[in-house]
Queue: 2 jobs
Job 1
Amino acid sequence: EAQVTQNPRYLITVTGKKLTVTCSQNMNHEYMSWYRQDPGLGLRQIYYSMNVEATDKGDVPEGYKVSRKEKRNFPLILESPSPNQTSLYFCASSRGDRAYNEQFFGPGTRLTVL
Amino acid sequence: AQSVTQLGSHVSVSEGALVLLRCNYSSSVPPYLFWYVQYPNQGLQLLLKYTSAATLVKGINGFEAEFKKSETSFHLTKPSAHMSDAAEYFCAVITKRGATNKLIFGTGTLLAVQP
C-alpha cells in the first residue's frame, strides 16, 4: 500500500530535550515536505526537499532541522524543543513539485513540549 | 503571491442538506487549486484539484468545486451531507517559490453534520 508513515504519532517531551520525528514514504517520490498545523493558521511549511541531499527552508524553519540522506526518509529534528513548537506535524511527499502533483500526507505527529 | 481565504472556520449542516464551503483565491496567474479533507486523527487527503482543464471539478465522496474566475472563487459543494463528511476541509493554492512550487493552505473549515 502506497503510504507516508510518521513516528511517533504522539510525543510529550520537555524543553531542551532533542527529538526526532521520522517520516518515510514508499512511493519513490522525489519531493518531501514537513508542515505544522496550528488552530486558525492552517498548515505552514517548515522545510522541504526536492531530492536526496537537497533541502531548503519553508515558511517557518526556525528551531527545526531536516536531512535527506535517502530518498524514502525525511526526518524532522528539533535540537532544543520549546513550548511554542507544540503542534501537529505532517510529513508529505509527491512526485516532483509540479503544480499539479498531488501531495500525499502522513497521519500526523502530535507533539507537546512542556 | 498567491493565497487562499476560507470564509467560515466552522460550518454546521443537517444530514441530507447541501454542503457549501467557501474558498476565495488571490492569484496574478491562472491558479492551481486544491481541496483537501482531514478526518479526525488522520492526515490530509486530496478531495479534488483544479488544473485549468475544466471549471467544474468532481472529486471523491460526491464533492465537487467550481472555479469562477470572475469571482476568484473555488467553493466546495456536496448536494447531500452525510454524517461521515464531518471533518476539516482545507483549500490550497500553488504558488511559485523561485524555481519551485509551494502549496499554500487556507486556515481550514470544520464541518459538523447534525443528525
Note: The mean pLDDT of chain A is 93.
Job 2
Amino acid sequence: AQKITQTQPGMFVQEKEAVTLDCTYDTSDPSYGLFWYKQPSSGEMIFLIYQGSYDQQNATEGRYSLNFQKARKSANLVISASQLGDSAMYFCAMRERGSTLGRLYFGRGTQLTVWP
Amino acid sequence: NAGVTQTPKFQVLKTGQSMTLQCAQDMNHEYMSWYRQDPGMGLRLIHYSVGAGITDQGEVPNGYNVSRSTTEDFPLRLLSAAPSQTSVYFCASSYSLAPRTDTQYFGPGTRLTVL
C-alpha cells in the first residue's frame, strides 16, 4: 500500500483565490511527521510546512496552512490568496519516527496552475 | 547560510564512467541523505548518514557509494555509470531525526544523464 496518496494530478486556481491540495497517508507508527514541499519548474525542492502527529493545532506558515485530520489520516495543504508564483508541483511527504532510516515517503505530487 | 549546496548542476556521462556528486551543508546538520527522482517513481532514498563517519543504505543503494568524513560534506559516488542511473539527484539534510528537528532541506539537485 502506498504510504502517501495525492489523488489530484493537477489543480487549477485563479489568482487571489484559495486552493486545497489533498494528501492522505498510511502508517501504523504513532509518531510521524508530515511535510509539504514545493517544486517549481526550476527543479528545486522547497520546504513549506510541517505537522507532527502529536501536534494539537494545525500548522500555519504565512499563506500556507495544513488541515490535519488525524482520524482520517489526511494532511491537506491550503494555500490562501494564490499568486502566479505558486504555480508548481506540490509534494506531500511523511517520516515515520520509528524508523532509523530517516526516509521521507513522498506522494506522486499535484501540479498546481494559478491563472490570472 | 548557503543551506544545502550541490555540484554539478548538470552532468552527462558515458556508460561505465565514474563520478562524484558533491553535497555540502553549512547548517551543522547531523542527518544527510541522497534521493533520486524519476518520473512515475517519486523520490527514492539511496543512502543516508546520521553523523560523521556513519552511513547506511537506503531503498536503492546499488551502484552508489557514500562517505561522511565531515559533518558538512556527503558526496555520492557512481562507481560505473549505467543508463538506469539517469535521474535527478537530490541531497537533503536535517538537524537530527528527533521530532521537530527532522525537517529535511533539499539542495538544488543534479540532473544526470548516462548515455
Note: The first strand of chain B starts at residue 4 and ends at 7.
